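Annex B. Sample input.
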Amino acid sequence: MNAVSVPESSDGENSATESARLCHDLRQYVAAGLLLSTTAPGREPGGQPLSLIHQQFEAISELLDAEGGHRVGVVNLTRLVAECAEVARVTYRAPVVTERSGPVLVRGDQALVRRAVGNMLDNACRAAGSTGTVSVQVEVNDESARVEVHDDGAGFGGISSGTGHGLQVVAAAVRACRGRLEISSGPGVGTSVRLCLPATRRPVRPA
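Annex B, continued. Sample output.
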């Protein structure tokens, strides 16, 4: 698996590019909220879908608050990934399998990290389609915490092109959190994307 270099963004492109990224992610959150707000026949409202709708509105609020600048704090990566995976399960047909892990804390901007993980899952689910599977793993060692998203789909070259903003959002999170991005995508099926962030073991309250 190779590390991907993340280019620095210039001041001239920041405003227009970030505006496009923001619209891209807001559309994802709103689309998921619309799906969740449609109660299936015979299913009573007020259960899990309502909880996920509330989560989507919190994500939108978090995203809009982040426009004022990065808010670095301690993020419970395990919980955040679980929330993003739950939304992906109701948005796409591909099964999203998460491996259980204890709390993994990282230092970074929670809104950016959520956007990064959400976009990683979005790309993986689109690649997996209706017949593939997406797996998500959170792990930590002495120096870094990692979120790895793997799909057994067509790979980067085998799915229809998107806007390109998804990978830019992940790259922005990598820069802001001083992490790195690793991507493995062979000539055949399957892609693994790993987001590596500095871990923290300080006993502080997660964001």
